[in-house]
Model the fold of this input.
Amino acid sequence: MKLATIQQGARTTAAIQVATGYLPLAARDLNELLAAPDWKAQAENALREHQDSMVLPAHEVTVLNPVPRPAKVICCGLNYSDHILEMGRDLPQYPTLFAKYADTLANPDDEITSTASQAVDWEAELAVVIGQQVSQATETDALHAIAGYTVANDVSMRDWQRRTLQWFQGKAFDRTTPLGPVLVTADEIDPAAGVQVTCRVNGEVVQSGNTSTLVFSAARLVSYISEFTTLRPGDIVLTGTPGGVGMGMEPPRFLSDGDQMETEIPGIGTLRNTFRLRVGSTAHTR
Amino acid sequence: MKLATIQQGARTTAAIQVATGYLPLAARDLNELLAAPDWKAQAENALREHQDSMVLPAHEVTVLNPVPRPAKVICCGLNYSDHILEMGRDLPQYPTLFAKYADTLANPDDEITSTASQAVDWEAELAVVIGQQVSQATETDALHAIAGYTVANDVSMRDWQRRTLQWFQGKAFDRTTPLGPVLVTADEIDPAAGVQVTCRVNGEVVQSGNTSTLVFSAARLVSYISEFTTLRPGDIVLTGTPGGVGMGMEPPRFLSDGDQMETEIPGIGTLRNTFRLRVGSTAHTR
Done:
């Protein structure tokens, strides 16, 4: 199944993507849906029993961030082995982890606006969405706790990221990490077998990596994180970005006002975000 | 005012600490109280109009983490100038920030248990509690957005903290950062003028610093953070720890099973936490 959070007029609901559009569910978003232990059976029942008249045509709805209210968004850096090895580095023993908050997330088609950084970079990523509470989990248990996968772009303010040793402040600007467009349930996609993660800027492919080369698989990351903190339904784990970020280019290349950023994983979908550079436009920075 | 979150039997409420005990309020905790724009007037009215019979004696209640449900817990490292200078380092231009989640927090008298680290260290800190939504704020506006202050200990798993460049995983173990015992409203305490932050282990003073030596004041931190993310009522900012952590000792000293950790700020109160070392006791690490 492909699950989404959609808006029609003032109403926001969870929904199932079907061939002809979106079938709305009772839950207001996927966070509310996933909080029900039988969420998958609920959705499968709705899909089985629905009538065509219930389906909203795609052009009548706006597709939102599918999981807008996670309590935790935990991100892994330095995780694509082909990129690490091509940089001449050793593979890491432990995942490099950092945090975001729900406020950091954006809708799949949102404009991404920078008011404080002129060194804004792309990081296409596969995102894991948790489907049941998980703590001290083996990799097998962790895999079963994954509801599904979606697409993210861990848009990073490199100047802020490098102000100190800790990356957090360059990674946690509000409404800068687009997520979506749908959550594909874990029975339909297998990142360990390999899915392609691509980022294009103004149509040019800048990143293209395969999740089969992840040092720490999705299940391994969830298991590792669960050693120190409980993950709950609707929480999100970002699995890292492949080579090709702007910071690594010579000279470094960052997003310019009006740039079109597309982040794609076949079988899930594409995030399409226009970048807006508005440094100096707020009262505080003027 | 001194505000708390207390438990009596199965019931948890916000409360005002008074000379004879705790005056319960309608809100279930300080997160719910602070979410009301007129929270301070509500509390002042309750205090003015209460009768002695409404006050619960201190021995009948358990004092909990005053703000158990923050959406954000943002922490500053390397912030006490006397400690930075004595280490021969330059004062930083920008605050070093990292994140925790609500799950990281613990009650003021909780046992702190480590199941995965044998290098657990103390970090006594002044904690800021946000009282109104703040974004792109000047220092003056940021100061007005502070509801008050409480005591925290940013207990750190040094081995996990040092596994990678990012500290997060050593700082985000569930139920390891005690907070409390009360929130003292900002009209009653001024960290810029100086409050003493002390940590004792088994009665021995290991840390003692004064907030007048903070490189980034509480208001400056809130202003700086508000440049990239919105802070809301009940969110928490930890202001960093003075010199004297165990990692800096020769040889390094970490908490042992049964150690009594006390974290104190005069005018706010004392956290009293017994440390329990239980490495190898969980199914996963066995």
Observations:
- Chain B has two domains: 2-64, 73-277.
- Chain B has a mean pLDDT of 96.
- Residues 194 and 212 of chain B are 4 Å apart (CA to CA).
